[in-house]
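Following the same procedure, the fold was encoded as tokens, giving this record:
***
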Amino acid sequence: MPFLGQDWRSPGQSWVRTEDGWKKTTRDDNETNNNVSERESKEEDNYKENLLLSMKYDVAAKKRKKDLLNKNTKIPYFYKDNWIYVHKGSTKERHGYCTLGEAFNRLDFCSAIKDTRRFNYVVRLLELIAKSQLPCLSGVAQKNYMNILERVVQKVLEDQQNVRPIKELLQTLYVSLCSLVQDMGKSVLVGNINIWVHRMENILQWQQQLDNIQINRPMNTGMTLLDLPVSLQLNIMHRLSDGRDLVSLGQVCPDLGVLAEDRLLWKNLCQYHFTDRQIRKRLMVSDKGLLEWKKMYFKLCRCYPHKEQYSDTLQFCTHCHILFWKDTNHPCTANNPESCSLSMSPQGFINLFRF
């Protein structure tokens, strides 16, 4: 490109833009064409000035947008899709494949937290990711993970419900981060180590807030659980699927404590969560020759995982490879979409993206 100003290689000469193109002129020629060159130079200066202003504006706008994304850790979720297409491998129509982080970002977990049917499902999924899958997420997905976790803690603090599962989730995540932060130089986590140290401090603060929760007694003087007949109290206890809830309920008063020791309650829990083969391997007999179902339950819990059951789960369509929430529709082309849908447990959701 020609020089816009005086050519340093030939003093006294400069490049001038004409209708026929760029030409080299001497000082005498410049004096004769002074009016033309001045007008053209002014137009050129104005053009360059406007171009620089527009470039500065674009750069400033991009910088403000970048600063907003970097500084604002509570950015809204990028997607709130009720379903996504899970593609494995590259094709002519689509490049790349769907990852666990992409699915975690795009699916509408924000609204799922507010839905009581999906809350336990999301909490279990967060726990599984905290145990082993956190390094597999992208930087945006890791940031989104912490944002969702913060919303979960805020909901528990407001509703004063599901305190124990969230405390266990935070403890699991903190233990995992303690080991992962030590390997930051090996590209285990995305981001500066100071960011993750700050997030670990937030986890400790959330744990302290959950420990300080004081559940307020209801102000109404209506009928309570103790006012119900014993048969109804036992019927309610049979609806509990966690033995720790039974133990906590038995500590309320001596009458409930006696009901919480009912052998049939613990027998149903053992048969619900574990198979007959697992139970036979962990048989425990008392001095009177009776099976200790309560002790067997907690022993089985230490050896085998619980049976998971959720009101609403993610579904995977084997026909069109779409992942969607159970109560939402997806654009399926099969004649009978219900026959193609498989219920996805939280562990199945993670296994779906292991190629």
The two ends are 52 Å apart (CA to CA). The first helix runs from residue 27 to 32. The chain is about 55% helix and 5% strand.
